[in-house]
Amino acid sequence: MRDDVRERARTYFDGASPAHDWHHVRRVARLAETLVEADGKQIDEDVLFAAVWLHDIGRSKEDCGEIEDHAEWGADEADDVLRELDADAETIEEVRHCIRAHRYSNDVAPETREAKILSDADNLDALGAVGIARVFAYGGELGQPLYDPDLPPEADDSAAGETQFNHIHEKILDLPDRMYTDAGWELADDRAAYVAAFADRFEREAAGEL
Ligand code: FE
Predict the structure, then answer these.
(1) CA of 19 to the centre of ligand 1 (A)
(2) pLDDT tens digits for range 7-65
(3) pTM given for the model
(4) Domains in the chain, ordered, with CATH?
(5) From the CA of 125, how far away is ligand 1's center (Å)?
């Protein structure tokens, strides 16, 4: 089933933007494998990897305003995909939960091991060098400025940051606090330290100190 789900999921990413394209999904799959190995606890790999492949199938629809919440829409769409592939009802329910819970802002907390690993893997891809690249790719799509010297992070009280640089401060550097697994936390801590060093250097360059 795993390969069939992967191939079905892939079709949703034609023309996807760089921050949430199929390469993102593949990196999340790789990170999920790393976390499963490090975690060492029993999990249902069919559930986890179906959820990994399908978690962002609604993302481009949300980005263009066609739907409001890619996690809710994605869970319903995943239900249809998995039904067509003859997955059993319990697997479908578990995958639905993982997908609904991976989006931090929709108030569904991950309750199962599989949902926690998907959430951690997805957040890890928002950290480190790759995470920084994704912030600027996404901010570029939104047409946000890189940085605004008149709006430093401490003066920006928007939820996600009004500049790309502020987004790093508002959202990305807090991600280690949102990890659910020990292995996820360790990797997140290391990646966040890299982002913090980048942010510090960026600020000094932008201020003309370097
Ligand atoms: Fe994702």
Answers:
(1) 9
(2) 999 999 998 999 999 999 999 999 999 999 998 889 999 999 999 999 999 999 998 88
(3) 0.94
(4) 1-109 (1.10.3210.10), 126-210 (1.20.58.1910)
(5) 8
